Amino acid sequence: MMTNMRSTLVASVAKNDKTAPEPIVRPATQAGRFYDGSATRLSHEVDSLLNVNADANGRSVLDSSLAKNVAALIVPHAGYYFSGNVAAAAYATLSTDKRYERIFLLGPSHHEWLDGASVNIGADRYATPLGEVTVDRETGRQLMEADSVFAYHPEAHDREHCLEVQLPFLQRRLGDVPPIVPIIISTDDFAKLKRMAEVLKPYFNEKNLFIVSSDFSHYPSYGDACAVDGRTGKAVESGDVGQFIAAIEANAKSGIRNLATSACGEFAIITLMCMLDRNYQVKHLLYQNSGDVDDHDPNRVVGYHAFAVVRSQKFTVTDEEKRQLKAIALQSIKDSLDGKRIAPTDSPLFAANSTLRQKCGAFVSLHKHGHLRGCIGHFGEDYPLHRIVAEMARAAAFEDPRFTPVRRDELDDIDIEISVLTPMRRIQSLDEFELHRHGIYIRKGYRSGTFLPQVADEVNWTKEEFVSHCAQDKAGIGWDGWRDAELYVYEAIVF
């Protein structure tokens, strides 16, 4: 009788309990295997790895303007002992001030063949020894509704390590990790990968972060791994999905002993690369392989790359900033004539203006009665704009070997033209070069040369003639030397 009463009471309480069900938590299946299972030791390990790859104050290794525009990372997923340093190089690029709406995690399946993608909408949270991370199940469902190429296969996530191992880095770097969208991609059907990219592309914006999990060469010798991963890495860095696929196929046909794959996450990488356009740059951060960490068997190693995909920002210079830069250029020339140094970089004028402090290249041209009187420029993105303009103005006035130094009595007749250069972007084909819009920079070995965009306005050359003249006349590598050289384009804000 007592037992029946107790059963009835429990049933009654359960029926009237309106509280929400317990959340479904995916457990930390790889704790104690791929990374330490102790929260204390894990925190110390990840922080140590991040500190090695960030600056002394824990800031991003990228310029602050770039760090806030990181759109995606490509990171390895081996045990932290082997690949933790390379993974940390990627996570150290993230700005700790940036707040993302959600993080998309893309990786390969090591256990199940899906011929598609699986979005984990079966878990409310992912657990690690450092706490739990919320899953954005609603966004996952929206992906599945958008295209049947996305589905939910529980078995694809239960034992999979490639996404889980990313979470402790996010927890220690970002602190409060936004909701994640875990996606396992397992198909070699390029049409399906493109469909995935098309569905994901609307989310590939400044509000969200994408993380692609992939190791690279599997099981060649140390030397072969360096060669294979070098080719694959350059293809990723190009941002060209066709070049990446060609590199993967070339490696597979190379006959390299024990090479099982060039990139286990190649399908996730292809999906990411299909979303890239000219507004994104892929920056290579670090390469190592397991032989750099443990030389127990140098004939059988795994390669690890770290990349950051950075969203380009439109660089502009206001009319007031143009006026200030011209004033800086003129003052620099006057100060040189008076034997003075260039104005200090801690001037309140410079400190208050972020554009004048932007690190970029610039050319300063001097004209007298419509004729060139001097022109010197600097391409490196290593000094603030105001400093480069001051230095180049002085160099154009007194160091251009084609002209005698500017005299004081000429100053009233000299016009100053400044060309502020946008960040350079490497191109793989002349199809990416636009005459009159782009300047060209050619580098081959120790030789290099450039034509500013406005040179095209002064000549009647075709695109190929423009590049060939630059190769021959500026870089000194011959008329056709550009064909196997590194080509970069940039734009110039001229005033």
Write the layout of secondary structure elements.
Layout: H1 2-16, E1 25-26, H2 39-53, H3 64-67, E2 70-75, H4 80-91, E3 102-108, E4 116-119, E5 125-128, E6 131-134, H5 137-146, E7 150-151, H6 155-158, H7 167-174, E8 180-186, H8 190-200, E9 208-213, H9 222-238, H10 241-252, H11 266-273, E10 280-289, H12 290-293, E11 303-311, H13 319-337, H14 348-351, E12 362-368, E13 371-378, H15 385-398, E14 414-421, E15 425-427, E16 439-444, E17 447-451, H16 463-475, E18 486-490, E19 492-494
Parallel strand pairs: 1-5, 2-9, 3-8, 3-9, 4-7
Antiparallel strand pairs: 2-11, 4-8, 5-6, 10-11, 12-13, 12-14, 14-19, 15-18, 16-17, 16-18
Helix pairs in contact: 2-4, 2-7, 8-11, 9-10, 13-15
Strand content: 15-25%
Q: Provide the gyration radius in Å.
A: 28 Å
Give the terminus-to-terminus CA distance: 95 Å
Give the overall silhouette.
elongated
Low-confidence stretches: 1-16
- Main-sheet strand order equals 7-4-8-3-9-2-11-10
Sketch the major β-sheet. Answer: 8 strands, mixed
Q: How many helices?
A: 16
Helix/strand structural class: alpha/beta
